Amino acid sequence: MNAAELATALRAGRGFGHKTDIAGMLSVLKHALPAGQSAEDRGIVLGDDCAALADGAGHLLFAIEGMVGEFLRAMPWFAGYSAVMVNVSDIYAMGGRPLAVVDAIWSDGIDGAAEVIRGMAAASAAYGVPVVGGHSNARSDGEQLAVAILGRARRLLSSFAARPGQHLLMAVDLRGAFEEPYPYWNASTSAPGERLRADLEILPALAEAGLCAAAKDISMAGVAGTALMLMECSRIGGRIDLDAVPTPPDVPLLRWLSAFPSYGFLLAVDERDVQEVIARFQARDITCASIGRFDNTSRVSIAHRGESALLWDFGDATFILPARADACAGSLAMQGD
User: Fold this and answer.
1) 206: which of 126, 162, 200, 212 fits an S-S bond (Cβ 3.0–4.6 Å)?
2) Residues 79-93: what's their mean pLDDT?
3) Collapsing DSSP states into helix, strand and coil, what is residue 170?
4) Which domains, ranges and CATH numbers included, belong to the chain?
């Protein structure tokens, strides 16, 4: 596929579709606020991976994830594991460290929840994050799961802090495999917990060393969609070099661009700090590379095999933002000054 065909396929993909739905959800939230009040009036900032509430010298971080019913039914253990794992990733993506999780689980009988709970317990042990409470309903007509997490950051990584001229870095653990036939790249369940925790510790260490101020974990929108969210939040554009994207051997490019990796982050890094940041990931056998640059336009393009194509123009259409909003979507983040 050439660059234009890849851009068309990405825009038509399920991951992009889920993200562009967010703007509609936020429009409902906007109209649900008391008359005369905006989200900003209530201290709500929309767009980071977690809600961030100023607390002393740092921030408390809150996040929540829900699992798709199809995923729960097909792979209950891995769905339970993933529900904890993705929340942990959200905390680290903002420069934080997780403290604890709670869950809400619905099932048709206790047996229907057993494998999900076992998966959650396995992830809790691997990542060192206790499950401290929650809600259950074993008399439901189907399976549903949501998991919320609490963490703390000394210094935030934010979706709003990327700047023109910075490099777009991708860090990803390629020591895994797809959970067929799904787009989930699993580099977690077979890895030692000590290694998983130390690999994630790179993110808050970068924030606290002042080597990075903006990051996002790679979501179901894939590499390109997550980059769009980061750029839209920071009100910038940029270029993504698909040929520079770290990719596992024998995996088609489009599938990889749409994948949800168990360990995958995008970071905005100044030129002077690029090699230091890459070296920190490489020291732990995490693949990290510069895959693009940010600019001061409203356009995001992709480059592939000497060709370039427009992926998105925020001047023509928002991605996850309601039209003309000052803040972005994704979660509610109550920011301090």
Assistant:
1) 212
2) 97
3) strand
4) 3-28+158-334 (3.90.650.10), 52-153 (3.30.1330.10)
